[in-house]
Design brief:
Blueprint: H1 3-12, H2 14-32, E1 43-45, E2 52-54, H3 56-68, H4 87-90, H5 93-102, H6 119-130, H7 132-143, H8 148-168, H9 172-189, H10 193-206, H11 214-218, H12 226-247, H13 249-258, E3 260-261, E4 267-268, E5 283-284, H14 286-308, H15 318-338, E6 341-342, H16 348-358, H17 362-378, H18 388-404
Antiparallel strand pairs: 1-2, 3-5, 4-6
Helix pairs in contact: 2-6, 2-8, 6-8, 6-9, 7-8, 7-9, 7-16, 8-16, 8-17, 9-10, 10-12, 12-13, 14-15, 15-16, 15-18, 16-17, 16-18, 17-18
Protein backbone atom coordinates (compact mmCIF):
# COMPACT_ATOMS: atom_id res chain seq x y z
CA UNK A 1 0.00 0.00 0.00
CA UNK A 2 1.46 3.37 -1.05
CA UNK A 3 1.79 6.33 1.33
CA UNK A 4 -0.90 8.21 -0.57
CA UNK A 5 -3.30 5.29 -0.14
CA UNK A 6 -2.29 4.65 3.48
CA UNK A 7 -3.29 8.08 4.80
CA UNK A 8 -7.00 7.81 3.89
CA UNK A 9 -7.05 4.27 5.26
CA UNK A 10 -5.60 5.44 8.58
CA UNK A 11 -8.25 8.16 8.78
CA UNK A 12 -11.03 5.75 7.89
CA UNK A 13 -9.92 3.16 10.46
CA UNK A 14 -8.93 5.60 13.20
CA UNK A 15 -11.32 4.08 15.75
CA UNK A 16 -9.98 0.49 15.64
CA UNK A 17 -6.44 1.90 15.47
CA UNK A 18 -7.00 3.85 18.68
CA UNK A 19 -8.72 0.87 20.30
CA UNK A 20 -5.79 -1.38 19.35
CA UNK A 21 -3.27 1.11 20.76
CA UNK A 22 -5.25 1.28 23.99
CA UNK A 23 -5.50 -2.49 24.26
CA UNK A 24 -1.77 -2.88 23.65
CA UNK A 25 -0.90 -0.29 26.28
CA UNK A 26 -3.28 -1.57 28.92
CA UNK A 27 -2.43 -5.17 28.14
CA UNK A 28 1.32 -4.90 28.45
CA UNK A 29 1.15 -2.67 31.54
CA UNK A 30 -1.38 -4.94 33.23
CA UNK A 31 0.55 -8.14 32.56
CA UNK A 32 3.99 -6.85 33.51
CA UNK A 33 3.57 -3.91 35.89
CA UNK A 34 0.04 -4.23 37.21
CA UNK A 35 -0.38 -7.99 37.28
CA UNK A 36 -2.97 -7.82 40.06
CA UNK A 37 -5.36 -6.04 37.68
CA UNK A 38 -6.06 -9.22 35.73
CA UNK A 39 -5.03 -11.92 38.18
CA UNK A 40 -8.67 -12.94 38.55
CA UNK A 41 -8.94 -13.71 34.82
CA UNK A 42 -7.73 -16.76 32.94
CA UNK A 43 -4.23 -15.29 33.00
CA UNK A 44 -1.82 -17.09 35.27
CA UNK A 45 0.30 -15.46 37.98
CA UNK A 46 3.23 -16.96 39.85
CA UNK A 47 3.37 -16.01 43.49
CA UNK A 48 2.95 -12.31 44.16
CA UNK A 49 5.88 -11.04 42.10
CA UNK A 50 5.56 -12.78 38.75
CA UNK A 51 3.91 -11.45 35.63
CA UNK A 52 0.30 -12.36 34.89
CA UNK A 53 0.24 -14.01 31.48
CA UNK A 54 -2.30 -15.89 29.33
CA UNK A 55 -1.40 -19.49 30.07
CA UNK A 56 -2.95 -21.04 26.96
CA UNK A 57 -0.75 -19.02 24.60
CA UNK A 58 2.40 -20.91 25.53
CA UNK A 59 1.16 -24.23 24.23
CA UNK A 60 0.34 -22.67 20.85
CA UNK A 61 3.74 -20.95 20.82
CA UNK A 62 5.32 -24.37 21.36
CA UNK A 63 3.38 -25.71 18.36
CA UNK A 64 4.52 -22.74 16.26
CA UNK A 65 8.11 -23.37 17.38
CA UNK A 66 7.88 -26.89 16.00
CA UNK A 67 6.61 -25.52 12.70
CA UNK A 68 9.56 -23.11 12.57
CA UNK A 69 11.85 -26.12 12.87
CA UNK A 70 9.75 -28.16 10.39
CA UNK A 71 8.76 -30.65 13.09
CA UNK A 72 5.22 -31.13 11.79
CA UNK A 73 4.88 -34.52 13.50
CA UNK A 74 5.04 -32.80 16.89
CA UNK A 75 2.27 -30.32 16.17
CA UNK A 76 -0.32 -32.23 18.25
CA UNK A 77 1.96 -33.82 20.83
CA UNK A 78 2.84 -32.48 24.32
CA UNK A 79 3.52 -29.82 25.38
CA UNK A 80 1.57 -28.05 22.60
CA UNK A 81 -1.94 -28.94 23.88
CA UNK A 82 -3.22 -27.99 20.43
CA UNK A 83 -6.75 -29.21 19.65
CA UNK A 84 -7.78 -26.73 16.98
CA UNK A 85 -6.66 -26.71 13.33
CA UNK A 86 -2.98 -26.04 12.42
CA UNK A 87 -3.62 -22.45 11.35
CA UNK A 88 -3.68 -21.43 15.02
CA UNK A 89 0.03 -22.26 15.28
CA UNK A 90 0.86 -21.04 11.78
CA UNK A 91 -0.08 -17.41 12.52
CA UNK A 92 2.38 -17.37 15.44
CA UNK A 93 5.33 -18.58 13.35
CA UNK A 94 6.65 -15.03 12.60
CA UNK A 95 6.91 -13.98 16.25
CA UNK A 96 8.37 -17.35 17.29
CA UNK A 97 11.05 -17.00 14.61
CA UNK A 98 11.96 -13.57 16.01
CA UNK A 99 11.99 -14.94 19.56
CA UNK A 100 14.35 -17.68 18.39
CA UNK A 101 16.69 -15.18 16.75
CA UNK A 102 16.64 -13.01 19.88
CA UNK A 103 17.54 -16.06 21.98
CA UNK A 104 14.73 -15.48 24.46
CA UNK A 105 13.43 -19.04 24.49
CA UNK A 106 9.88 -20.20 25.13
CA UNK A 107 10.10 -21.34 28.75
CA UNK A 108 6.64 -21.03 30.26
CA UNK A 109 5.77 -18.88 33.24
CA UNK A 110 6.75 -20.59 36.49
CA UNK A 111 8.50 -20.19 39.80
CA UNK A 112 11.85 -20.52 38.06
CA UNK A 113 10.80 -18.12 35.30
CA UNK A 114 8.49 -15.42 36.71
CA UNK A 115 9.25 -12.92 33.92
CA UNK A 116 9.43 -14.74 30.55
CA UNK A 117 11.23 -12.42 28.15
CA UNK A 118 9.40 -13.95 25.19
CA UNK A 119 6.21 -12.20 26.35
CA UNK A 120 7.73 -8.82 25.48
CA UNK A 121 7.56 -9.90 21.83
CA UNK A 122 4.72 -12.42 21.86
CA UNK A 123 2.40 -10.19 23.90
CA UNK A 124 2.25 -7.17 21.56
CA UNK A 125 2.17 -9.47 18.55
CA UNK A 126 -0.78 -11.58 19.67
CA UNK A 127 -2.72 -8.57 20.98
CA UNK A 128 -2.22 -6.72 17.68
CA UNK A 129 -3.12 -9.87 15.78
CA UNK A 130 -6.33 -10.25 17.77
CA UNK A 131 -7.25 -6.66 16.91
CA UNK A 132 -7.86 -7.68 13.30
CA UNK A 133 -11.44 -8.30 14.38
CA UNK A 134 -11.80 -4.65 15.47
CA UNK A 135 -10.93 -3.50 11.95
CA UNK A 136 -13.34 -6.02 10.43
CA UNK A 137 -16.10 -4.82 12.77
CA UNK A 138 -15.46 -1.19 11.86
CA UNK A 139 -15.52 -1.96 8.11
CA UNK A 140 -18.79 -3.86 8.56
CA UNK A 141 -20.32 -1.01 10.57
CA UNK A 142 -19.30 1.42 7.84
CA UNK A 143 -21.01 -0.82 5.27
CA UNK A 144 -24.14 -0.60 7.45
CA UNK A 145 -23.96 3.20 7.33
CA UNK A 146 -23.14 3.60 11.03
CA UNK A 147 -22.10 7.13 11.99
CA UNK A 148 -18.55 7.77 13.32
CA UNK A 149 -19.55 8.38 16.98
CA UNK A 150 -21.27 4.99 17.12
CA UNK A 151 -18.27 3.35 15.46
CA UNK A 152 -16.07 4.86 18.17
CA UNK A 153 -18.21 3.22 20.87
CA UNK A 154 -18.23 -0.03 18.88
CA UNK A 155 -14.41 -0.05 18.78
CA UNK A 156 -14.13 0.67 22.50
CA UNK A 157 -16.65 -2.03 23.50
CA UNK A 158 -15.02 -4.45 21.05
CA UNK A 159 -11.59 -3.85 22.60
CA UNK A 160 -12.94 -4.61 26.08
CA UNK A 161 -14.47 -7.85 24.85
CA UNK A 162 -11.46 -8.99 22.79
CA UNK A 163 -9.24 -8.48 25.84
CA UNK A 164 -10.73 -11.66 27.28
CA UNK A 165 -9.59 -13.63 24.23
CA UNK A 166 -6.09 -12.23 23.80
CA UNK A 167 -4.98 -10.63 27.05
CA UNK A 168 -6.58 -13.01 29.53
CA UNK A 169 -6.60 -16.34 27.68
CA UNK A 170 -4.12 -16.07 24.80
CA UNK A 171 -6.20 -17.29 21.88
CA UNK A 172 -5.53 -14.88 18.99
CA UNK A 173 -6.69 -17.55 16.53
CA UNK A 174 -10.28 -17.08 17.72
CA UNK A 175 -10.17 -13.34 17.14
CA UNK A 176 -8.49 -13.60 13.74
CA UNK A 177 -10.93 -16.31 12.63
CA UNK A 178 -13.96 -14.17 13.53
CA UNK A 179 -12.33 -11.17 11.84
CA UNK A 180 -11.87 -13.18 8.64
CA UNK A 181 -15.47 -14.40 8.92
CA UNK A 182 -16.69 -10.79 9.04
CA UNK A 183 -14.55 -9.86 6.05
CA UNK A 184 -15.98 -12.90 4.23
CA UNK A 185 -19.54 -11.72 4.85
CA UNK A 186 -18.55 -8.25 3.64
CA UNK A 187 -17.05 -9.72 0.47
CA UNK A 188 -20.22 -11.71 -0.16
CA UNK A 189 -22.34 -8.58 0.31
CA UNK A 190 -20.18 -6.86 -2.32
CA UNK A 191 -20.76 -9.67 -4.84
CA UNK A 192 -17.34 -11.26 -4.36
CA UNK A 193 -18.33 -14.83 -3.63
CA UNK A 194 -14.94 -16.30 -4.53
CA UNK A 195 -13.06 -14.02 -2.14
CA UNK A 196 -15.67 -14.72 0.54
CA UNK A 197 -15.16 -18.48 0.23
CA UNK A 198 -11.38 -18.21 0.54
CA UNK A 199 -11.70 -15.96 3.60
CA UNK A 200 -14.05 -18.43 5.27
CA UNK A 201 -11.61 -21.20 4.41
CA UNK A 202 -8.77 -19.30 6.08
CA UNK A 203 -10.99 -18.69 9.13
CA UNK A 204 -11.84 -22.39 9.45
CA UNK A 205 -8.16 -23.30 9.15
CA UNK A 206 -7.53 -21.14 12.21
CA UNK A 207 -10.52 -22.05 14.37
CA UNK A 208 -13.33 -24.39 13.26
CA UNK A 209 -15.87 -22.59 15.47
CA UNK A 210 -16.74 -20.46 12.41
CA UNK A 211 -18.29 -23.59 10.89
CA UNK A 212 -21.30 -22.75 13.04
CA UNK A 213 -21.90 -19.65 10.90
CA UNK A 214 -21.42 -21.42 7.56
CA UNK A 215 -24.99 -22.82 7.21
CA UNK A 216 -26.44 -19.32 7.64
CA UNK A 217 -24.03 -17.88 5.09
CA UNK A 218 -24.80 -20.61 2.57
CA UNK A 219 -28.47 -19.62 2.54
CA UNK A 220 -27.53 -16.36 0.79
CA UNK A 221 -25.10 -17.87 -1.70
CA UNK A 222 -26.51 -18.28 -5.20
CA UNK A 223 -27.30 -22.03 -5.61
CA UNK A 224 -25.21 -22.61 -8.72
CA UNK A 225 -22.16 -21.29 -6.86
CA UNK A 226 -22.52 -23.51 -3.81
CA UNK A 227 -20.22 -26.30 -5.00
CA UNK A 228 -17.36 -23.95 -5.83
CA UNK A 229 -17.94 -21.94 -2.66
CA UNK A 230 -17.75 -25.03 -0.43
CA UNK A 231 -14.68 -26.35 -2.26
CA UNK A 232 -12.77 -23.11 -1.69
CA UNK A 233 -13.97 -22.88 1.92
CA UNK A 234 -12.77 -26.42 2.69
CA UNK A 235 -9.42 -26.27 0.89
CA UNK A 236 -7.16 -24.41 3.40
CA UNK A 237 -8.11 -26.49 6.45
CA UNK A 238 -8.03 -29.72 4.44
CA UNK A 239 -4.51 -29.02 3.16
CA UNK A 240 -3.17 -28.12 6.61
CA UNK A 241 -4.80 -31.12 8.27
CA UNK A 242 -3.55 -33.43 5.52
CA UNK A 243 0.01 -32.23 6.10
CA UNK A 244 -0.29 -32.72 9.86
CA UNK A 245 -1.90 -36.16 9.46
CA UNK A 246 0.77 -37.26 6.99
CA UNK A 247 3.41 -36.48 9.62
CA UNK A 248 1.55 -37.95 12.62
CA UNK A 249 -1.89 -39.34 11.85
CA UNK A 250 -2.66 -40.74 15.32
CA UNK A 251 -2.03 -37.53 17.26
CA UNK A 252 -3.72 -35.34 14.65
CA UNK A 253 -6.90 -37.41 14.40
CA UNK A 254 -7.21 -37.77 18.18
CA UNK A 255 -6.78 -34.05 18.87
CA UNK A 256 -9.05 -32.81 16.09
CA UNK A 257 -11.90 -35.30 16.51
CA UNK A 258 -12.09 -35.64 20.29
CA UNK A 259 -11.06 -32.07 21.18
CA UNK A 260 -10.49 -32.82 24.89
CA UNK A 261 -11.55 -30.32 27.53
CA UNK A 262 -11.23 -30.47 31.31
CA UNK A 263 -14.34 -29.70 33.38
CA UNK A 264 -12.25 -30.02 36.52
CA UNK A 265 -10.22 -26.99 35.43
CA UNK A 266 -12.83 -25.14 33.40
CA UNK A 267 -16.57 -24.75 34.01
CA UNK A 268 -18.67 -27.94 33.91
CA UNK A 269 -22.07 -27.69 32.24
CA UNK A 270 -25.24 -29.82 32.24
CA UNK A 271 -23.78 -31.66 29.24
CA UNK A 272 -20.63 -32.78 31.05
CA UNK A 273 -22.08 -36.07 32.28
CA UNK A 274 -23.25 -36.96 28.76
CA UNK A 275 -19.94 -36.28 27.02
CA UNK A 276 -17.49 -39.15 26.32
CA UNK A 277 -14.95 -39.26 29.14
CA UNK A 278 -11.25 -39.43 28.30
CA UNK A 279 -8.16 -39.92 30.44
CA UNK A 280 -6.91 -37.42 33.04
CA UNK A 281 -10.42 -36.19 33.80
CA UNK A 282 -10.97 -34.81 30.29
CA UNK A 283 -14.15 -35.04 28.26
CA UNK A 284 -14.48 -35.04 24.48
CA UNK A 285 -16.00 -31.77 23.27
CA UNK A 286 -16.02 -32.86 19.62
CA UNK A 287 -19.44 -34.61 19.63
CA UNK A 288 -21.16 -31.65 21.32
CA UNK A 289 -19.64 -29.25 18.80
CA UNK A 290 -20.89 -31.46 15.97
CA UNK A 291 -24.36 -31.29 17.54
CA UNK A 292 -24.13 -27.49 17.65
CA UNK A 293 -23.33 -27.44 13.92
CA UNK A 294 -26.40 -29.60 13.23
CA UNK A 295 -28.59 -27.17 15.18
CA UNK A 296 -27.00 -24.29 13.25
CA UNK A 297 -28.10 -26.03 10.06
CA UNK A 298 -31.63 -26.07 11.50
CA UNK A 299 -31.41 -22.32 12.13
CA UNK A 300 -30.36 -21.81 8.52
CA UNK A 301 -33.30 -23.87 7.26
CA UNK A 302 -35.64 -21.85 9.47
CA UNK A 303 -34.65 -18.55 7.84
CA UNK A 304 -33.93 -19.85 4.35
CA UNK A 305 -37.48 -19.37 3.10
CA UNK A 306 -37.44 -15.75 4.28
CA UNK A 307 -34.25 -15.04 2.32
CA UNK A 308 -35.12 -16.96 -0.83
CA UNK A 309 -36.88 -13.98 -2.42
CA UNK A 310 -34.10 -11.68 -1.24
CA UNK A 311 -31.82 -13.36 -3.78
CA UNK A 312 -33.79 -11.57 -6.47
CA UNK A 313 -32.67 -8.16 -5.19
CA UNK A 314 -29.81 -6.21 -6.75
CA UNK A 315 -27.16 -6.63 -4.08
CA UNK A 316 -27.49 -6.49 -0.31
CA UNK A 317 -29.24 -3.74 1.58
CA UNK A 318 -27.92 -2.75 5.03
CA UNK A 319 -31.05 -4.30 6.56
CA UNK A 320 -30.38 -7.68 4.93
CA UNK A 321 -26.70 -7.59 5.93
CA UNK A 322 -27.64 -6.74 9.51
CA UNK A 323 -30.13 -9.59 9.72
CA UNK A 324 -27.59 -12.06 8.31
CA UNK A 325 -25.05 -10.92 10.90
CA UNK A 326 -27.57 -11.32 13.71
CA UNK A 327 -28.31 -14.90 12.69
CA UNK A 328 -24.57 -15.55 12.50
CA UNK A 329 -24.34 -14.38 16.13
CA UNK A 330 -27.18 -16.74 17.06
CA UNK A 331 -25.40 -19.63 15.35
CA UNK A 332 -22.13 -18.84 17.15
CA UNK A 333 -24.00 -18.80 20.48
CA UNK A 334 -24.93 -22.46 20.00
CA UNK A 335 -21.43 -23.47 21.02
CA UNK A 336 -22.03 -22.07 24.49
CA UNK A 337 -25.36 -23.86 24.75
CA UNK A 338 -23.98 -27.35 24.04
CA UNK A 339 -20.39 -27.30 25.34
CA UNK A 340 -19.61 -29.99 27.95
CA UNK A 341 -16.96 -27.73 29.53
CA UNK A 342 -16.91 -23.96 29.16
CA UNK A 343 -14.23 -21.27 29.27
CA UNK A 344 -14.90 -17.54 29.51
CA UNK A 345 -13.55 -16.65 26.07
CA UNK A 346 -16.04 -19.01 24.38
CA UNK A 347 -18.62 -16.23 24.82
CA UNK A 348 -16.62 -13.65 22.90
CA UNK A 349 -17.51 -14.45 19.23
CA UNK A 350 -21.19 -13.82 19.98
CA UNK A 351 -20.36 -10.49 21.63
CA UNK A 352 -18.17 -9.39 18.72
CA UNK A 353 -20.87 -9.94 16.09
CA UNK A 354 -23.80 -8.77 18.25
CA UNK A 355 -22.08 -5.43 18.86
CA UNK A 356 -22.02 -4.83 15.10
CA UNK A 357 -25.69 -5.65 14.60
CA UNK A 358 -26.55 -3.28 17.44
CA UNK A 359 -24.37 -0.42 16.12
CA UNK A 360 -26.93 1.36 13.86
CA UNK A 361 -29.06 2.32 16.91
CA UNK A 362 -27.81 4.33 19.88
CA UNK A 363 -30.11 2.62 22.41
CA UNK A 364 -29.28 -0.85 21.06
CA UNK A 365 -25.54 -0.15 20.89
CA UNK A 366 -25.43 1.36 24.38
CA UNK A 367 -27.37 -1.53 25.92
CA UNK A 368 -25.40 -4.19 24.04
CA UNK A 369 -22.04 -2.55 24.86
CA UNK A 370 -22.89 -2.33 28.56
CA UNK A 371 -24.17 -5.91 28.69
CA UNK A 372 -21.23 -7.29 26.68
CA UNK A 373 -18.67 -5.52 28.89
CA UNK A 374 -20.40 -6.71 32.05
CA UNK A 375 -20.62 -10.29 30.80
CA UNK A 376 -16.95 -10.23 29.80
CA UNK A 377 -15.93 -9.49 33.37
CA UNK A 378 -18.56 -11.63 35.10
CA UNK A 379 -17.56 -14.61 32.93
CA UNK A 380 -14.13 -14.66 34.60
CA UNK A 381 -15.76 -15.75 37.88
CA UNK A 382 -14.71 -19.16 39.17
CA UNK A 383 -18.20 -20.37 40.06
CA UNK A 384 -18.49 -24.14 40.09
CA UNK A 385 -21.41 -26.48 39.50
CA UNK A 386 -22.88 -27.54 36.18
CA UNK A 387 -25.79 -25.08 36.15
CA UNK A 388 -24.95 -21.74 37.79
CA UNK A 389 -22.13 -20.36 35.62
CA UNK A 390 -23.42 -21.97 32.42
CA UNK A 391 -26.95 -20.72 33.07
CA UNK A 392 -25.89 -17.14 33.83
CA UNK A 393 -23.63 -16.98 30.76
CA UNK A 394 -26.28 -18.26 28.37
CA UNK A 395 -28.89 -15.96 29.88
CA UNK A 396 -26.47 -13.08 29.35
CA UNK A 397 -25.92 -14.08 25.73
CA UNK A 398 -29.67 -14.26 25.22
CA UNK A 399 -30.08 -10.75 26.62
CA UNK A 400 -27.32 -9.42 24.37
CA UNK A 401 -28.86 -11.03 21.29
CA UNK A 402 -32.19 -9.45 22.25
CA UNK A 403 -30.62 -5.99 22.55
CA UNK A 404 -28.78 -6.44 19.24
CA UNK A 405 -31.71 -7.83 17.22
CA UNK A 406 -32.73 -5.74 14.20
CA UNK A 407 -35.93 -3.96 15.10
CA UNK A 408 -36.91 -3.02 11.58
CA UNK A 409 -36.60 -6.14 9.43
CA UNK A 410 -36.19 -5.63 5.71
CA UNK A 411 -39.31 -6.52 3.74
CA UNK A 412 -38.04 -9.56 1.92
CA UNK A 413 -41.46 -10.43 0.52
CA UNK A 414 -41.37 -7.41 -1.82
CA UNK A 415 -38.29 -7.98 -3.96
CA UNK A 416 -37.47 -5.53 -6.69
CA UNK A 417 -36.08 -6.31 -10.09
CA UNK A 418 -32.43 -7.22 -10.21
CA UNK A 419 -30.12 -10.15 -9.85
CA UNK A 420 -29.41 -12.80 -7.27
CA UNK A 421 -27.43 -12.15 -4.14
CA UNK A 422 -23.84 -12.99 -4.88
CA UNK A 423 -24.27 -11.84 -8.48
CA UNK A 424 -22.74 -8.57 -9.71
CA UNK A 425 -24.80 -5.66 -8.45
CA UNK A 426 -24.30 -1.96 -7.89
CA UNK A 427 -20.79 -1.48 -6.49
CA UNK A 428 -20.53 -0.09 -3.00
CA UNK A 429 -19.14 3.41 -2.73
CA UNK A 430 -17.35 2.44 0.46
CA UNK A 431 -13.82 1.13 0.47
CA UNK A 432 -14.02 -1.86 2.79
CA UNK A 433 -10.34 -2.58 3.10
Amino acid sequence: MSVSALTPWLARRRFPLLATAGLLTVGMVATTCGAHLISGWGARQVGGHGWTLPHDLWGTLAAAHRLVHLDVSGLYTPPTSLVTFPGAALILVPVVAVIDVAGLGLAALGGHNPHPGAWLLAGPYEIALSSVVLFAADATAQRLGVAPPKRALLAAAGAVAVGSVSLAWGHPEDAVAVGLLLYAILALSNSRAGRSAWLIGAAVALQPLVLLALPVILTVVEPRRLAGFLTRAAAPAALLLAAAAAANATATIHAVTSQPNWPGLDHPTPWTSLAPHLSDGAVAAGPARALAILVACGCALAVRHRWRLARQMAGWSPEVLREVLWWVAVALALRCVFEPAMVAYYLWPVLAVALITASPSWPGLAATSAAASALTFVSQASWRGPWIWWGVMNAGLGMILFFAAPRRVHQLDQPGPGVLLGEPGPPSSLNQR
